Structures are given as C-alpha cells and as structure tokens.
Amino acid sequence: MDNQDCIGLVIEVPNIGRGQIRYIGSVETKKGTFVGINLFAGNGKNDGTFRGRRYFETSFPQSGLFIQWEKIANLIPIPSNPEANMTIPPASPTPVRINANFLGYHEPLQNSFPEIKSRTSISNVIQPNDDPMQTTSSDLKMLQTELVQYKRLVEDQRIVFEEIQAAIDEYETKLDTTEKEKVLLQNQLDHERTSHQRQKQFYESEHDQLLTVIDELQSEINRNAAILAEIMQKEKKNSLENDYVMQDEPNSDALLINDLREQILELQQHKTQAELHRVQWEKEKEQLQFRNQSLSKNYKNLTTEMTEYQQKSHDTETKEYTLNKELDDARKKIGELESRVEELSKKQEENTLIVDSNIETLPLYNPGAEVKSTLVNAAAGRSLWCALCEKDGHESVDCPYDDKFF
Q1: DSSP string covering 126-156, please?
Q2: From 36, 138, 141, 305, which residue has the greatest number of CB atoms within 10 Å?
Q3: Could you read off the pLDDT of 198-209 as tens digits, one per residue?
Q4: Domains in the chain: ranges and CATH
Q5: pTM of the model
Q6: Burial classification of residue 1, based on how many CB atoms lie within 10 Å of its CB (0-12 exposed, 13-18 middle, 19 or more buried)
Q7: Residue 211 phi/psi, 5° resolution?
Q8: End-to-end CA distance of the chain, in Å?
Q9: CB 109 within 8 A of CB 330
C-alpha cells in the first residue's frame, strides 16, 4: 500500500493515544519521511505547523504531532478495503464550552448538523443489489456515525443551554434587586415629596403670617410716628402759650413719648425677626428643591437601568426559546435516525439469515485481528518508557529527540 493511501487512517500511538493521519512526507530541515497525526485527545505538540509552514490542519491548537515513518509503520493496519478504516474523527473529545456571555452565540443548531444523505442513497439501501449485507452494513455504519455526531451536537447545545440558564438566573436576580431598589427609592421619593409639600405649606403659611404681622407692625409704626409728629408739632407750637401747663404736668407728655418710643423699638425688633425668619425659610426652600432634584435624578437613572435589564432579559428569553426549539428539532432528528438504524439492523439480520440459509458458513478473514495480534506493546511492564525513541526515563509525549519526534 502506498504511503499516501494511509492518509485518513486512524491509528493508536503507544502511550499517546488515538489519532488520524493527516500528512505523510518530508519536513523542512528534517531528514527522512514524517507522518503528521491529528490526536483526538488534543495532547500534541503543535497545530500542524513547523517553522512557519503549515503541513496539515488540526482539530485543536495543540493536537498535531510529527513522527518518523519508521516509528509507526508497523502500527498501520493493512485493510482489505482501504475505506474500511477511514473513520471520521470526533469533532471534540470533550464538549466544547462556550462563554456564559451567551450574547455572542448566533449560530443556529440546524447549520451545525451535517447534511443527511439524500433520498436516493436511502432508497439504494432499501433496494436489493448484488451484495445486500455489505450495502446495509455500510449504510448502517454511516447512519450510526451521523447519529453519534447528532448526539455530540445535542450535548454541546445542552451545555450551552445550561450556561445560558445560569446567565438568565443572574440577570433575573439583578432585575429583582433593581426592582426592589426602585420600589424603595420610589417610596423614599414619595415620602420626601410628601414631607417637602408639608414643609412648603407650613413655611408658606408662616411666611404669610409673618408678612401680615410685618404689615400690621408697619402700620402701627406709621400710626405711632404720625401721632408722635403731631404731638411734637403741637408741643412746639404751644410751648410758649402753655408753659404753665407744662410746668404743672411736666411728666405727662414725656411718659407718652417714652411709651411710643418703646413701642417703636419693639415693632422694629419684630420686623427684624420676621426678616430673619424669611431668610431662613428661603434657605430651607432651596435645600428642599436641591434634594428633590437629586432624588428625581436617581429615580430616572434607576428607571433607565431597569429598562436595560428588562430588554436584556427579553433578549435572553428569546434566545432561550430558540435554543429549546432547536434542541427539540435535534431530538426529533435523532429519533428518526435511531428508527432508521433499527430498521437497517433488522434488514441486516434478515439478510444474514437469508445468506446463512443459502451458503455454508466459512470463517471470515479478519486482517485487523491478525495485525492487532502481531502488535506488541513494548511499554508493557515499564514505568517510564518511550515507544518512539525506545529508551527509558521518559514517555513518548515528552520525547526530547526533536529530530524524530516533535
């Protein structure tokens, strides 16, 4: 068998694991023929690139491995049908994790599924041909492979759905917290508004009363001033004529003047206090207005944040609904594939019975079993042994001989 015919075969590398041959040929700056293997477990040493040149594609960034042809030549089986061992490598040995930031997930589930074979292929499976057992067996393997891929994709979607569900729960928790804060601030704002309204009414009433008192005091001052001026004028006018009267009653008008002066001073003090109360009321009014504006601004910000959380929650629910629908469709397709596999299994059993009844059963030649029986695990019974350089002290993955294994 030609070396290039081995590309695509799945082999088991001792102490490393299973992988698929992706490249056979020379490697720059290296002597000899090397085999590029894509390891299913992702425990390789490169991504199919060596010294800036890409030789083959890998499933993971560190799943590529170059090994000399002589080291794995005896590991390659020689099948009677070259396509028998051409297996499709799993897309991922472990479910692929996607960030809990599910907002970046846009690829629908239907686009991730491989295309199902056409109706012509299925009809060819059902129609009899020269070798019904072989056709049924190959179609059964094909459907089983598709079924495994569907199950893997459904498992990946389930993991994505669980991570999205955790994000949804987090958003719901934040939304509930925001709702509680909004209700608390709304109650606080209503309480402040009610208190502000009561204080405003109280200060307005007190202000009106003070204005009334000031007006009354001003009227009283004006009236007393007019009386005092009239008395002074009369006193000045009649000072010469009524000297004897003033001499008889010197203290009468003096007492009246003193009383009027005391009343004027008292009214002026009341006026000063009223002015002080008015200034204090203006300051408290400005403070209440400032607090009202601050509460209104906080309420507006919380309303905006709550609207954003509600929008995000709505988007999350929409994506969750889409994922549920896609998962249901995938489960239906899996059910259909399982039904087809069961039908093909029954068909294969019927064909087997028919062949057994018509021809004599002979022992089948199993080249894979013979090759496998000739393979000897050289690492058996040793703790640390490299199957590539055939030396003790290290395993194959950590082989330091870069010329033969890198």
Answers
A1: HS--S-HHHHHHHHHHHHHHHHHHHHHHHHH
A2: 36
A3: 888 898 888 888
A4: 1-80+367-406 (2.30.30.190), 171-317 (1.10.287)
A5: 0.27
A6: exposed
A7: -60, -40
A8: 26
A9: yes
